[in-house]
Amino acid sequence: QDKPPALIKAETGKWIDAAAVADPATADSTKVVKSGTSADRTKILLTFEAGATTNKDPLDGGTISASAFLVNGANPVAAAWFDLSGTDKNAVAYEFRNLVVLTVPTMLSSDKPTVAIAGTIKDKAGNSLAAGPSITAVDTISPKLTVALAGDVGTAGDQANRPAATTNGKITVTVTSDEDLAAGTVPAVVSVGLIDDPAVAGQIIEGGI
Q1: Are 65 and 117 in contact (CB under 8 A)?
Q2: Bridge partners, 86 (sequence order)
Q3: What is the pLDDT of residues 85-113, one digit of tens each?
């Protein structure tokens, strides 16, 4: 007997790029789910498990709307469902009709909001998921790193007066993250061009570790 669809996963910082499979000749299903840009801070990707035991009916996109969800107790800005299924250029079958992308106000890197079903959601067979179930989102947003330089680095943008490459000096590099980093994490990208370009100070790096 068919069961209603179930919300099984919520991930911050992920969204759907329908253009990746828009052209059958170049369709690449591995590039549909996106992450790793500053825009991801407003996205939550929801994964539903098809309730049907035989046909695996996908979600009915007509039942997906912002009012059908709550994120930390408030409706999201928008909810999007994509009618994406088929076979890509590599003959790989793909099915993305059980995914929903919520747009929310900008989140912090460490946010793990609670996503709840607030309205009836159905699959193509008419099986209904009623309001009530909730899930805590997994944090997949990269930390935001801010670089600060101090010491013999000259004035930001003043290349003519920066210390010569042969001059012995001291540069202190401070990297601040907006969330705790795992022990041993080294943002190696920060070391590129610090002496040659003092203007690196104040740069913000996302997804660079």
Answers
A1: no
A2: 94
A3: 999 999 999 999 999 999 999 998 889 99
